[in-house]
Amino acid sequence: MFWRNSYQDLFWKNVLLMPKFLLYLLIGTDTWTQPQIQLAATSVNRKAPKRTAPAAEPVEPTAAPSDVPEHAPYLLIGGGTASFAAARSIRARDPGARVLIVTEESDLPYMRPPLSKELWFSDDPKAIETLRFKQWNGKERSIYFQPPSFYVSPADLAKVENGGVAVLTGRKVVHMDVRGNKVKLSDGAEISYEKCLIATGGVPRNLQVIDRAGEEVMKRTTLFRKIEDFRSLEKISREVKSITIIGGGFLGSELACALGRRSTDIGLEVIQMFPEKGNMGKVLPEYLSNWTTEKVRKEGVSVITDALVKNVTYKNDKLEIKLKDGRLTDHIVAAVGLEPSMELAKSAGLEVDSDFGGYRVNAELQARSNIWVAGDAACFYDINLGRRRVEHHDHAVVSGRLAGENMTGAIKPYWHQSMFWSDLGPDVGYEAIGIVDSSLPTVGVFAKATAKDTPKAATEQSGTGIRSESETEAVAGALKAETTATPPPIQQEEDYGKGVIFYLRDQVVVGIVLWNVFNRMPIARKIIKDGEQHADLNEVAKLFNIHED
């Protein structure tokens, strides 16, 4: 085991003694080194981004105005994970509740993580249409939370004896009358409510240089978010010779690895470029970010770091990305972040947070009387870590569930820390919790990985699929931490196979990354909740059993 302490120097490599084995990993590196590119800053478009081809045409309303109920006791705006979690929570506490979900999308509520993860690794050619996939544990499931038979018709919502959940697809709420407790839809229909949840999520940001580059460039640019974007990009990947992914965060890195894995089979060149020094450079300490970049390169991806896009032009059926030199590509995927959807703020008189974006809510996720906000669009007060806005699947589950409980009369604050995870294929993955920011001081403790220390092996062992708080808590809660006082062997070479990274603020742990360490999230959650200073984080790391064979 060895540790990294960013208080002293992110580049300082310290070797410590540990007990059971000599840690050594031969990390292959490319003999070709990408040139460092120093360019003028590239601005990101934070205005409402344009949806770009080859996405599907705007969704037409799927129900006639007469099918729109005039009243819904529980109205949920947005059809994503947060809304579905809220609906499930409402029905659990109020079994006869009538819940109406209104969504712009043409699909029933579904989970987004497989769009950039498991669906790309499916061997079933029909998976593109069925949206069924094998999880890392080999079990098959659908991307949809529930089949159509689970839901009731919006027109019948007021009539069903025991209530239910209805989904009105292809509709957008364009105005809120908070005094009259009603909303107006894009087709002019109005719906009154008693309790309302705003869970509108967000839209992908785009680079301004692409936004102003013209129609031909926009046609060849994907902003990845929805099912239609997955299907479109999958089709494009089989038709073009090269795809360039701009962005080194979670989504960009996951898509790069997914496309890189299949690049040899389909003759596709996959390029990933971003302004940071390594993949997920805003999240991981620099040494681990650089190590991760080498892993991404081994997946068949040409990674260009320190790259700032100055201009994008279309010429001779190619897109030229202007860096220090010209880079030619057939298609661009812009993965440069998410802009929370806040279009209802003005009509509803809701406060928007100027620092984090999103609707500003209290610790109970309430924005105004009878109005709650959950998911990506909520800027909430975390009683442990202060005001935050989080854009991850598990936060949508946790915040949606809490909002649903509070909509039915509970008065619960947001205290349960949600987690998030990212997989770079079936062999490298991590789970994280709290404030995970590479600008914070960090202490990392690592050990050599075994065959069991991969996302695939972890799900095979636990029986879980999508890793979220609601699905891993039962498994992880049964695990007991063990410690050992024996000293480590000499570490000959850095091995970031598995480990724990602690993020510190004022000497207190405020964030934790579990690197190829799975089903230990309750331990991390307790450490953050306790909010204590620790004299020796190497001892704390032993709670995660990273030395198990």
TrEMBL record:
Top-level taxon of the source organism: Eukaryota
GO molecular function annotations of the record: DNA binding; FAD binding; NAD(P)H oxidase H2O2-forming activity; protein dimerization activity
Span of the signal peptide: none
Coiled coil: none
Disordered: region residues: 44-66
Domain FAD/NAD(P)-binding: from-to ranges: 75-399
Amino acid composition bias (Low complexity), ranges on this chain: 52-65
Cofactors, names only: FAD
Localisation per UniProt entry: Cytoplasm, Perinuclear region; Mitochondrion inner membrane; Mitochondrion intermembrane space; Nucleus
UniProt keyword annotations, A-Z: Acetylation, Apoptosis, Cytoplasm, DNA-binding, FAD, Flavoprotein, Isopeptide bond, Membrane, Mitochondrion, Mitochondrion inner membrane, NAD, Nucleus, Oxidoreductase, Phosphoprotein, Transit peptide, Ubl conjugation
Residues in Mitochondrial apoptosis-inducing factor C-terminal domain copies: 403-530
GO biological process terms held by the UniProt record: apoptotic process; mitochondrial respiratory chain complex assembly; positive regulation of programmed cell death
Gene Ontology CC terms: mitochondrial inner membrane; mitochondrial intermembrane space; nucleus; perinuclear region of cytoplasm
Subunit structure: Monomer (oxidized form). Homodimer (reduced form). Upon reduction with NADH, undergoes dimerization and forms tight, long-lived FADH2-NAD charge transfer complexes (CTC) resistant to oxidation. Also dimerizes with isoform 3 preventing its release from mitochondria. Interacts with XIAP/BIRC4. Interacts (via N-terminus) with EIF3G (via C-terminus). Interacts with PRELID1. Interacts with CHCHD4; the interaction increases in presence of NADH.
UniProt protein name: Apoptosis-inducing factor 1, mitochondrial
